[in-house]
Amino acid sequence: MWLYLKQLNPQKVISIYLLFVVLVVSSCNEAAHNGGVQVVSTQDVQALLADNTVQRVDIRTPKEFAAGAISGFQNINFLAPSFNAAIQKLNPQQPILIYCQLGGRSALCAQKLKEAGFKTIYDYKGGMAAWTQAGLKVVTP
């Protein structure tokens, strides 16, 4: 195969390489999507807010939540010892949208929700930082 690639012009080699990278990245994205956890953008979150069947949970600390939150979200602190008991009060059959400050905790939380039997989990990529950077409304509960 190396001999074949050496015979191609450099532009074709680069094109083949880029195609390979795109295929790998898209297959990873599809695998994450099929796992029950969907990483969503700010625009996706805005659309999901119009759906009243979606449970909305801000998983940041109460102090972070009190400093400003996205309207319509309840606060369940992912780091609190009471987290597992709190999520038992939610409906695992209904979709759930979660966010944290930057996205790290929500990724961990999404896996915990999946293990707890939640079927459809939306994890807001970038969290509160992305929301405020987009200049969107923040409420102080």
Any overview of this molecule?
The protein has 141 residues and is of the alpha/beta class. The chain has two domains: 34 residues; 98 residues, 3-Layer(aba) Sandwich (Oxidized Rhodanese, domain 1). The chain contains seven helices and five strands; from the N terminus they run ααβαβαβαβαβα. Strands 1-5-4-2-3 form a five-stranded parallel sheet. Strand 4, helix 6 and strand 5 form a beta-alpha-beta unit. The radius of gyration is 20 Å and the shape is globular. The termini are far apart. About 12% of the residues have low confidence.
Question: Quick summary of this structure?
Answer:
This protein has 141 residues and is an alpha/beta fold. The chain has helices at 2-7, 10-34, 42-48, 62-67, 83-87, 104-115, 127-133, and strands at 37-40, 55-58, 74-75, 96-99, 121-124. The chain has two domains: 1-34; 36-133, Rhodanese-like domain (Oxidized Rhodanese, domain 1, 3-Layer(aba) Sandwich), CATH 3.40.250.10.
Unreliable runs, pLDDT <50, ≥5 residues? 18-34
Strand arrangement in the largest pleated sheet = 1-5-4-2-3
Assembly status = single chain
Number of helices: 7
CATH topology of the largest domain: Oxidized Rhodanese, domain 1
User: What is the rounded Rg?
Assistant: 20 Å
Strand % is 5-15%
Which secondary structure elements does this structure contain, and how are they paired or packed?
Layout (H helix, E strand, L loop, with lengths): L1 H6 L2 H25 L2 E4 L1 H7 L6 E4 L3 H6 L6 E2 L7 H5 L8 E4 L4 H12 L5 E4 L2 H7 L8
Parallel strand pairs: 1-5, 2-3, 2-4, 4-5
